[in-house]
Amino acid sequence: LNHRLAIIIMVVLALAPMISGCSGEEGNDTAVSIVNGEEITREAFDSQINMLVEMFKMYGMEEPDEETLKQMEEMVMEKMISELLLLQAAEKADLVVNEQEVDDYIKEFEEQFEDDEEFEEYLSAFGLTRDSFVREVEKGLLIDLYVQSSFDLEEEISDEELREYYEENKNFFGDLEFEEVKDSLRDQMLSQKLQEHEAKLIEELRDNAEIEILI
């Protein structure tokens, strides 16, 4: 896998809305993989690929060629399997997302658009309806809840750690003094630790999962 391309795809996936590519229309329900007895359908997989292609266009990148599409498929498959494993674990733990949190997320997301029509057009470009978007937001927030539920959000990050990071990346901060960026650095490092925790959870879930890839 081309390292530079892999980074680009990961960035685009991160910029994409919190959805797993679920379409609002009937489609191909053939399984492309089975995770602990639960299927990921061809429809959902293709929708995620199409979303990624649209995101490439949106950010001014060239339409992917055959080799790039193959690399996309590999990364999307890994992403969807990881998300499903986290979702299964969250449901097994009987976690429930607060309805108000879902509403707040959607409201904040909608505020990026001029009006409802522009928002609907955006969803349509990715093969989504408002209802399917809401469902995927609920799933995404449930995954976040699961990851955070086993992570100490109050974890102490020492000033020494922050200072070391600041000195190592001083060129990035320009004329800003350590005290000016300390709080934002703390948030950034906490977010990084949370991502590392999520990756560890996924690894543990994969080690104990039955995963069959059918394509």
Describe the protein in words.
This protein has 215 residues and is mainly α. The chain has one domain: Triger factor/SurA peptide-binding fold, CATH 1.10.4030.10. The chain has a 3-stranded antiparallel β-sheet with strand order 2-1-3. Strand 1 and strand 2 form a beta hairpin. The longest helix is centred in the last third of the chain and has 30 residues. It is globular and about 55 Å long. The protein starts with a helix and ends with a strand. About 4% of the residues have low confidence.
Helix and strand topology:
Elements: H1 3-15, E1 31-35, E2 38-41, H2 42-58, H3 66-92, H4 99-110, H5 116-125, H6 130-149, H7 159-168, H8 170-173, H9 178-207, E3 211-213
Antiparallel strand pairs: 1-2, 1-3
Summarize the structure.
The chain has 215 residues and is mainly alpha-helical.
Please state the overall shape, judged from the principal axes of the Cα atoms. globular
End-to-end distance = 18 Å
Q: Can you give the mean pLDDT?
A: 85
Query: Count of DSSP helices?
Result: 9
- The proportion of strand residues reads 5-15%
Keywords for this entry:
Triger factor/SurA peptide-binding fold, 9 helices, 215 residues, 6% strand, 3-stranded antiparallel β-sheet
